[in-house]
Amino acid sequence: MTWVDFGIFLNLFFNGYILFSKQLPFEFYITYIPIIVLLFFFIAKYRFPKELLLILIPLLITGLLNILLDNNTVGNFFKIFVNVAVNIIFYRYVMEYYDFDVSKIFKMYMQGSYIVALLGLIQVASFVLHIEPGYNWREFLPLNKWNFHVGGLLGIRLNSTFTEPSYFGSSIAPAFFISVYELIFKKDLFLNRTKQLVIVIAYLLTFSSLAYMGIFITILLFALNFGAVRYFLIAIPVVIVLYNAAYSNVKDFKVRIDGMKALFVDGIIEKELSGDLSKGARMYRVSKVLTKIHGSSFVLYNNMHVAVKNFKQNPLFGSGLGSHELAFEKYNLNYMLGGIYDFNAPDANSMFLRILSELGIMGVLFVFIFISKFYVSKNLSMEEDEKYWLMSNAILVIIFTQLLRQGNYTYNGFILFAWLYYFNKLQYNEYVGKQREELERTEAGRDHETEIAIQN
User: Does residue 146 contact residue 168 with C-beta atoms inside 8 Å?
Assistant: First the structure.
């Protein structure tokens, strides 16, 4: 691996150190430095891909219109628009730098996933053995945003080089998908057996609800690809068994699920805290509600409420990139709980909710069309296409987890996965076209030989 490779992939696996604090306009991670340096190198070396304007211009126009309509501010919009534009352009150049070799890039990602998974296992082992420098990296290394997380069956939730276990669960989800497949079918398309085991074990030790969501999505995608109805029917009880096991044995998972049920199913906020209440009665009911919900569950519920309200006001094109933060100020429910869960206002805690809020029907349709149009499913009649469907489905796991519980458009190189998903489909189409041409030539040759035999 060269220094260029290191600079490109560092952003995918490390977010523990920021140069700018939250009080400044935005958080500037140390991993942005190689992106900026390499971007100038790429601009000098390659032509600007003009087709990117089809993505950027609609975002710019709708964003400016929303500023004029007072749905957004100049600062909020351009902070996010510039970030998104830089990432879209940079990772498009990255694809060109690697000659659009999706398989090569994905293999490098898999190697990086193995390294951070191994560091995560060292972290957990150090905690169990009471070797503090091995797990308390914030204390012994200059990591100002990183911290280890207590919980789980072993007393610590693995997060490796990521700031939170959930970020590990999202970013390593594609590697988990591939590793599970290779372990089950005894293959080494991307990694050897030892490395596959390291990734799977590390993923489970996050004790993250988002990681477990990635596991459930993995199982369902395997069922879908290996025979639709039959395997899907098998996958459902498997998911139920795994869900019950996680719910019964992992406290962090259980409290989040209980909180989700209380909020989304039982409607505890509306039942307990709506209407006119005296100060004493409200304080009593708030304390009662807080025993039944989890902070992260309320944050998601709160942002869903805000996104739906904002969507109803701006259904077609949303209120513009970066505007969910302003919508949050208008519609959030934090006042009902005394403002103690004022989190994730900028990113909505879910990319789907953020897209719904900031980009409206235009954004939701784009996501739906992108996922469906460029998806590669397993072709049961063609063994040679294995890497194509594997990479497509592996990337789809991170897309789904991001849409569900990670609202930052560009965190940990997410845009690179989108480009890999897109170009993987294009290359699969080329592969299928060549296979068909070869088959047609073979059949034509056989017909010609048969015709000659008949004539003789």
Answer: no
> One digit per residue, pLDDT tens: the chain, 456 residues?
789 999 999 999 998 888 776 556 677 888 889 999 999 999 999 999 999 999 999 999 999 999 999 999 999 999 999 999 999 999 999 999 999 999 999 999 999 999 999 999 999 999 999 999 999 988 877 787 888 899 888 899 999 999 999 999 999 999 999 999 999 999 999 999 999 999 999 999 999 889 989 998 998 898 888 865 555 566 667 667 777 777 777 777 788 788 878 888 878 887 777 777 666 776 777 777 777 787 778 888 889 999 999 999 999 999 999 999 999 999 988 877 766 666 667 888 899 999 999 999 999 999 999 999 999 988 766 556 789 999 999 999 999 999 998 889 998 999 999 999 999 999 999 988 887 777 777 666 665 566 666 665
Distance separating alpha carbons of residues 39 and 45, to the nearest angstrom: 10
* Strands 156-157 vs 149-150: parallel, antiparallel or unpaired: antiparallel
Q: 149 forms bridges with which residues in the sheet?
A: 157
Alpha carbon distance 74, 66 (integer Å): 10
The candidate with the shortest Cα–Cα distance to 362, out of 409, 320, 299, is: 320
Q: Cβ atoms within 10 A of the Cβ of 82, count?
A: 12
- The amino acid present at 59, given as its one-letter code, is L
Q: How far separated are the first and last CA of the chain, in Å rounded?
A: 62
| The token pair that represents 15 in the structure block | 């977010």
Helices (H), 159-208: 165-171, 173-184, 193-204
- Residue count (the chain): 456
Q: 249 near 243, Cβ under 8 Å? A: no
The candidate with the shortest Cα–Cα distance to 112, out of 212, 180, 57, 190, is 190
Burial of 93 (0-12, 13-18, 19+ CB in 10 A): buried
CB atoms within 10 A of CB 238: 15
**Is residue 121 within 8 Å of 205, Cβ to Cβ?**
yes
Point out which residues pair with 29 in neighbouring strands.
Answer: 18
